[in-house]
Each structure stands twice: as C-alpha cells, then as structure tokens.
C-alpha cells in the first residue's frame, strides 16, 4: 500500500522557544485509519497543522500525495488543501453563515455547481443529526452541534485525507460513537483518516486503527505500528 | 482576468454584509460629485478655448504706416475697399482714430498728440477661414493698393484670456487625476480594513482550499458595486449642478462665458467617469487584496 503521508525528522518551533515537535518521523498508508493520542499540550494539534498545511515545519521533510509539501509554492496550496478535510479543534465555523452554508463551503470553493450542492449538504446534515437546524447560525448552536457541523463540512468533499482534531470532545458518548462510525464509513470508501483524541473510550471502537502517541513533542512509536491497547498497557496485547 | 460583478447569493453571504457600514458608497458619491464638477469645468473651458482659438485665428490687424496724412487716408480707403470685396473677409472696420489716440495717450503724453507724429491707421479684419493661404491672399491684395501696409495675424497665445483658460483646463485635469489617486488610496485602505475584519473567514476559506483570486473576487465584487452606486449618485448630483450653472450662464448673456458650454462628447465623458472610477477602484481593491493575501500561508 502506497504512503500518502511521510514525515522525516520533522521539527517545529513557534518563535524562539524550545521545539514543540522534535524528530517526528512516520508514514501513513493510503486508506488506513489512525488515532493520534497524547496528553494535552503534547503537540497533537501542531502535528496535524503540519499535515493539513496550516503550518510549515522548522526542519525536516514532509511528503504529501507523493510530493514535497515543505517547498510547495503558495499557488499550489489550494489544490492540496482541497484534497484534505479538516475538523479543527476550535471548529472554525463561519459565524454569519447558516449550518447549511458552512457545510456547503468546500463544494462551493471547489466550484461545484449550485444545483449539485443541495443534495449532499442535506444528506450530511441528516448524517450528523442536524436536519432541523439547517438555517441556524453557529453562535446559536450548542458546542456539540457546532462540532457536528464542522465534521459534516470536513467530510462533504470526500477528501483523500480526513484530519480530525479532538472531534468528539463536545458530544455525548452516543453521538461520539455515531461520529466515529461516520469516519469509519468514509474510511471504507478509501479516505485515510487521522483522528487526534485523548478519549480512550474511542480507541477500542475501530479495530483496524493504528495508534500514534505523542509525548512532549516526540512520537513514541515512530513506525506508527502500534495497535490498541498498547502492548505494554494493562489489558494485554493483541 | 474575469471581473464578475454579479455575485451569486452564496458568495454575497460569505463576507458578512451586515457588518461594516457602506461608507464606501458615500465616499464615492462625494468623490464623483467633485470629480465630475472639475471635469465639467475643464471640458467647458476647453470648449471655450477652442472657440476663442477659432475666432482669434481668423482675425487680422492691418496697419497703414504712412506719415503723409493724405496718402494714409487714401491708402486706408483703398485697402478697405479691397478687403470688403474679398469673399473670405467677413468684416473689415477701421479703428476709430479718436479711440486710437485715447488708447495711445499713456505712451504719447497727455498733451494733444503731435500732428506730425505718424499714428498709423488700423483696420480690424475678421476672416471666414483662418488658413495661411487666405491670410497670404489678403496680404497681397492690401499691399497692392497700400504698399506701406503691415498685416499682423493675431496669435492665440498672446491673449491673456486664452492663457487663463489653458491654466483652468490644466488645473481641472490635475484635479481629476488627484481625485482618481485619492479614490484608489481610499479603496486600498478600505480593502485592507475589510481583510482585517474578515480575517477569520478568509483563513477558513484558505484552509478549505480557496485561491487568493477567489478571495479577492469576493472583495472586488463588493467594492465594484459600492463604488458604482456611489459614483452614479455623485455624478447625478454634479450633473444637476452643472445644468443649473449652465442655465445661469445663458441668462448672463456674456460673450466670453457663452463659450463655456458642453458638447455631446463632453456629456458622454462625464457620464463615463463613474464607470471609469468603479473600474479603477475594483482593480485597486484586487491588487491590495492579492498583495495582502500573499503574506498568509
Ligand atoms: N501558535 C502557537 N504559538 C506558540 N506556541 C504554540 C502555538 N500553538 C501551540 N503552541 C504550544 O505548543 C505546545 C503544543 O500545543 P498543541 O499542539 O496545541 O498540543 P495539543 O494539541 O496536543 O494539546 C503547547 O505548549 C502550546 O502552548
Ligand atoms: Mg490540540
């Protein structure tokens, strides 16, 4: 299976402090499912930002879709970003747009004709259980509802990679499982999925998932071959 | 480069239209009001100057420089006769001698002019056509009967009124250019402020794969519309003022100011100004936005 993402000795430093990420090396296989775990402040969001091209690394090399993503010219970023769906930790919904328009954004940005927008948006709204909140603006939605809009927006374009940063942090366990099932369905259709979470209840739900663990900016298992539960954790190995 | 002014409803919703006043529309209304007034003044003066040029170009002064009075009188009469039969001459009038003496008194002294002092006789001539050939023919005709005649063609640049008009025209053109520069500057500032206001939205759009051109289009559409509406309003106001002033001028019945009228071409130019300014504003906004977006990742 081809590698869709390859990090080699990647380091990231914000400003002049110490490195937030150090010597991060891993590969993601096309079509696989990954969990990224680690304590708060370990660097999960920073690593994902490098992955969805919101941040350039301070050192090291990143290959994405078989191309060097570090030296990618600005003009080619939009094309790459359209192939990646992102659930931001802080949702990043456009506050003055309705739930419908927020979810429709990726399609409209990609130039999908307006006649082909409505059906998939309604389908996504139904999937995340928000069919009755079509016209609601994000500030009037609960945290969990906003998160579901963010997820719907991330997956509507059938991205090749889905990056979700703590996507179940604001929803109840039932909804968390439902959303995870959505990611799983997308994964079955061929999307490579990376979910950052520290919700250990979720980890066991996807049997095929690979584990990546970050600790103080370092990846504990650079090969990315860990399975849940970790072999050294109580509960045994595979 | 396509500048689509009509945005889809979805595009219009993207930049929160309720936020941010429509100050741009009012600024543009004032800008175009002043610009159209300046342009009307410039175009009107240009028209008056052209009219004056045509009049001056067809005007000659014939001087009969002859010391012996009887000869001078004789030659003057014969020159007048020749001039009045020439078809190209529309008017030939001897300047009244008493008037001429009055005019010359400051130079000749207050005393009665020395009868021996040879004041030349002068004839004002208007020509139908101001061509060099016509002037040469008149000169030859007059010289044949009055060998001492000197024929002076009026040069338009010698007229102080003409040079004043030239100055007013230049001033008006300078004002129009200044207003265009000020408009571009205002639009650039507004576009930058708009970018700051919509920074979060733009970041999201970038993350979803929007190109800079797509983002710039959102701004330029909006600015094109705002500036066009404001510009047309300002132009309508200014045209109203111009019509009012024009009507006042006609009631004055002044020869000089009567030339200050606008032709069809002038009106078309004035009407095109708000559109030209909207295009200028749109391009300025586009450049400002693209330049600023280049600093995002
Ligand atoms: N934009 C930033 N500027 C400076 N420091 C940052 C920035 N983003 C994150 N950090 C720091 O990097 C570290 C890792 O943060 P983050 O990647 O958000 O971790 P996690 O997502 O695992 O909680 C933290 O110490 C945080 O303070
Ligand atoms: Mg985080």
From TrEMBL, chain A:
Topology term for the membrane: Peripheral membrane protein
Keyword Lyase: no
MF (Gene Ontology): ATP binding
Keyword Transmembrane set for record: no
CDD domains for the chain: ABC_MJ0796_LolCDE_FtsE
GO biological process: cell division
Function: Part of the ABC transporter FtsEX involved in cellular division. Important for assembly or stability of the septal ring.
PANTHER family for this protein: CELL DIVISION ATP-BINDING PROTEIN FTSE, IMPORT ATP-BINDING PROTEIN
Subunit and interaction comment: Homodimer. Forms a membrane-associated complex with FtsX.
Listed NCBIfam families: FtsE
Family of the protein in this entry: Belongs to the ABC transporter superfamily.
Protein name per the record: Cell division ATP-binding protein FtsE
Source organism of the structure: Sphingomonas echinoides
Gene expressing this chain: ftsE
From TrEMBL, chain B:
Subcellular location field: Cell membrane
Domain of life: Bacteria
Pfam families associated with the record: FtsX (PF02687)
Chief location bin: membrane
Protein topology in the membrane: Multi-pass membrane protein
Membrane-spanning intervals of the chain: 23-52, 164-191, 227-247, 267-285
Keyword Cell membrane: yes
Keywords, in A-Z order: Cell membrane, Membrane, Transmembrane, Transmembrane helix
Organism listed in the record: Sphingomonas echinoides
Protein name: ABC transporter permease
UniProt xrefs under InterPro entries: ABC3_permease_C, FtsX
Domain ABC3 transporter permease C-terminal: 175-286
